[in-house]
Write a structure and sequence with these properties.
The protein is an alpha/beta fold and 421 residues long. The protein has two domains: 12-75 and 100-184 and 278-385, 3-Layer(bba) Sandwich (FAD/NAD(P)-binding domain), CATH 3.50.50; 189-274, Alpha-Beta Plaits (2-Layer Sandwich). The protein is built from eleven helices and 19 strands. The protein has helices spanning 19-30, 55-63, 67-72, 108-122, 172-177, 232-238, 243-254, 256-262, 306-325, 331-357, 363-385, and strands spanning 12-15, 35-39, 80-85, 88-93, 125-128, 131-137, 143-149, 155-159, 162-165, 181-184, 189-197, 204-209, 212-218, 223-231, 272-274, 280-282, 285-286, 289-291, 297-298. The strands form four sheets. It has a seven-stranded mixed β-sheet, with helices on both faces. The protein has a six-stranded mixed β-sheet with strand order 5-2-1-9-18-17. Strands 6-7-8 form a three-stranded antiparallel β-sheet. Helix 2 (55-63) crosses helix 9, helix 9 (306-325) runs antiparallel to helix 10 and helix 10 (331-357) runs antiparallel to helix 11. The chain is globular, with a radius of gyration of 21 Å.
Length: 421
């Protein structure tokens, strides 16, 4: 991956090169801003994720001119979702709408480099192996950049009018600026997942039974990501000491149909475990700083919406920063507007996710919750379609369709999501 010549002063510094940070940096660079993106991991490194993108996320990749790369990488199209709610089975076709005729669940070793490369192509400087240790501030306390080091221990400093924290749910940027949580979740589930080759699956499959949920998500390399989720208490009791046996038992309880398909076939690699964390909706911005992705807004992964929300918020934030840079209004007003829009779109998703993650529902109750989730997802798609211009590469003259209504009015495509965006 090529990068531009190293600068020491930028219009924006983004801490984190995963989807939220890379997309924000890409959009800022496409708008002509000087951008540095740093990440402590290596280029193309894997991370915990179950990959599912909902319509809003696929729409963003399409609008940005990146969806073809996801498809070319061999990511299988998802053209239907099947819900097993108690004894009932409901299959819903993914209707073509807004230029999206399928959903996708790319593995992170594919999606993350696509976004980072797009940022570099747009002119952003992307540096891996950089650990940020502190923020720079002026005498008034405003954040003015970052202080850190590379993998060799050499100091890395950069100054910018705005520093963006895109460093995940445990964001150090959020900690350093004292970004309070305006909303905290009340429930946190635990997820265990792995990859199985050759599992017969047709689209996304989601299973809900009292006290547990599961799913099958087709992804790259002929693999299916299979997850099982439950309360943290049950996770500690049944899966901590013996993950493999505990996972098989939990999957059989939540999704016996899926467990039968796996039979005794081992996964391709070790099982991965997310023990759970309460959701948060943090203050999104302050003097010289802003948060995007899980750094500002994290919810339990059971609704598979984290990646989609990260791509949504990347554009909301990039538009606010670009407008401030152009002098359209003052920075504080524009960043306040970013937070207001983020919160308006996020709160319904946050609330229904919290209710599902409690695992106190029965079949009728979870069916109603899934319908609430679907309505919130449809509103999010409408909000993305309302963006005034697609943020496509220079020379790409595609326009959004004039019909801005969402087709996602049926029960949603839900399942386990991702814990570090």
């Amino acid at each position: 991956m090529s990068v531009t010549k190293h600068r020491r002063r930028y219009d924006a510094v983004v801490v984190g090169a995963r989807p939220a940070g890379a997309a924000t940096g890409m959009l800022l660079a496409r708008a002509g801003l000087r951008v540095l993106i740093v990440d402590r991991s290596e280029y193309g490194a894997d991370t915990m994720s179950t990959h599912a993108l909902m319509r809003g996320g696929v729409l963003q990749l399409s609008r940005w001119g990146l969806l073809d790369q996801v498809i070319t990488a061999g990511t299988p199209p998802v053209r239907q979702a099947t819900f097993y709610i108690g004894a009932d089975r409901i299959t819903i076709a993914i209707k073509p709408a807004e230029g999206v005729d399928a959903l996708y669940a790319p593995q992170r070793t594919i999606l993350d480099p696509i976004l980072a490369d797009a940022a570099a192509t747009a002119g952003a400087e992307v540096r891996y192996g950089v650990t940020v240790k502190a923020l720079q501030r002026d005498t008034a306390g405003r954040v003015t950049g970052i202080i850190g080091h590379d993998q060799s221990g050499r100091p890395v400093t950069a100054r910018a009018p705005l520093t963006v924290g895109a460093d995940g749910m445990g964001s150090r940027v959020a900690h350093w600026v004292g970004a309070r949580a305006d909303r905290l979740g009340a429930a946190a589930g635990s997820v265990t997942y792995g990859y199985w080759p050759g599992v017969p699956v047709d689209g996304y499959e989601w299973f809900f039974r009292p006290g547990a949920a599961a799913g099958a998500i087709p992804t790259n390399h002929g693999q299916t990501c299979v997850f099982a989720a439950t309360t943290r208490e049950r996770f500690r009791r049944d899966l901590v000491r013996n993950p493999t046996t505990g996972f098989r038992r939990l999957l059989a309880a939540a999704a016996p149909e899926l467990a039968d398909r796996l039979a005794e076939t081992p996964p391709a690699g070790p099982l991965r475990r997310f023990p759970g964390r309460l959701g948060h909706l943090r203050r999104a911005a302050g003097p010289g700083w802003a948060l995007v992705g899980d750094a500002g807004y994290f919810k339990d992964p059971i609704t598979a919406h984290g990646l989609t929300d990260a791509l949504r918020d990347a554009e909301l934030l990039a538009r606010a920063i670009t407008a401030a840079h152009a002098g359209e209004s003052d920075e504080a007003t524009l960043l306040s507007g970013y937070q207001a829009t983020r919160d308006r779109l996020s709160l319904p998703l946050f609330a229904v996710t919290d209710a599902i993650a409690a695992y106190t529902w029965d079949a009728l109750e979870v069916d109603a919750l899934l319908k609430q989730l679907s309505a919130a997802m449809a509103d999010e798609v409408d909000a993305i379609l309302a963006f005034d211009h697609p943020a496509a590469p220079p020379g790409d003259n595609r326009r959004l369709p004039s019909d801005r209504r969402s087709a996602d009015r049926a029960p949603s495509m839900t399942g386990a999501g991702h814990a570090d965006r």
